[in-house]
Design brief:
homodimer; alpha+beta; seven-stranded mixed β-sheet; three-stranded antiparallel β-sheet; 4 helices
Chain lengths: ~200, ~200
């Protein structure tokens, strides 16, 4: 991968590290931890600790209501932050699933809406310093309601329809604490995606 | 914490989990992993795996150049993504340091600029599902150049001054791969912070 990257940006080879080995040092059902032995641009060896996990999808569902266009969001307890969080639906890919299918499934399961159209907003690293996976952002519209959510037995997820401006303005304080939802807003804003629906 | 949260949002107690115990199962110089035993709103026990780390600061430095207002950014190799990333400066708090001091220090060390003014943009969880720490976002301006960067021996960080629109438009594809930089853009945009400089 370093070779590919160096080839893509030949002016930056003096910044590129080479990976020589990886060793798994911890696993859980959600992620694993690897120690990666790397050589610096000056050929010095170093070990870095990296978290690997399946890729995720985050999907921004836009619903047309009597009040205009609004976001369909989910409120749930988050065990890392020990706090309730109001978020766009999303989750990890299932085995063999592509990004768009994961986004459509998470939308159906968590919110009980089926999207007529799903459009990619971009792909990022949730934290390229310490995480190896990617997060795939989507915009969903032409929403049709389904019978009910399809939650796991230990999922407690409440659906809320929220004015778009409340989310843009609220980001960075509770219940809008999830930084990656801010990333979704930035990707939405960049192409004025909301105005092209 | 669950009690505090429940008190803050009394209508949502049916979504709140109670933590009963935590156990450290892995440590590295960068983060530790804990297994947390929790009770669901229906009093069912579950174990969740959570990554804990010091809080981070991310600082958006705005420089006035002959071309207008631009961002001061840093290009560096990221060992999780195995890729070069063009980012706002930032890093973990040092022991005893507060968020603003960490932001000012990271700005100085990585970019060789001292900020005359640093303003908070908000606080998020980088990933509230699996991470316990917080990320603190700042806007920095009135920038004065210093002599040189102050990098660790294994840091290879190149400073670039980038037009603001290039960053907003580029987010979600290389070299703008870092999702938390998108979060910073969303927080910047929400109060039209850039237009109040």
């Amino acid at each position: 991968m370093d070779t590919k990257q160096a080839a893509q940006e030949p002016g930056n080879t003096h910044l590129v590290w080479r990976e020589e080995a990886r060793r798994e040092v911890f696993t859980s059902p959600i992620f694993s931890i690897q120690e990666r032995t790397c050589r610096s641009p000056d050929n010095e060896p170093r070990i870095f600790t990296v978290l690997d996990a399946p890729d995720w999808a985050i999907v921004v569902p836009v619903l047309t209501t009597p009040r205009g266009k609004e976001f369909v969001m989910v409120r749930q307890w988050r065990h890392g932050a020990q706090e309730l969080s109001l978020e766009f639906p999303g989750g990890v890919f299932e085995k063999g699933e592509d990004a768009r299918a994961a986004a459509a499934r998470e939308l159906r399961e968590e919110t009980a809406y089926e999207a007529g159209t799903i459009r990619s907003l971009g792909v990022c690293s949730p934290n390229p310093a310490i995480m190896a996976n990617r997060v795939h952002f989507f915009l969903a519209f032409d929403l049709k309601p389904l019978e009910a959510q399809a939650l796991d037995e230990d999922e407690y997820v409440e659906v809320e329809v929220v004015p778009i401006q409340a989310v843009f303005q609220g980001m960075g304080r509770p219940p809008y604490i999830h930084a990656l939802m801010g990333s979704a807003l930035a990707l939405l804003g960049k192409g004025d995606s909301l105005f092209h629906l």
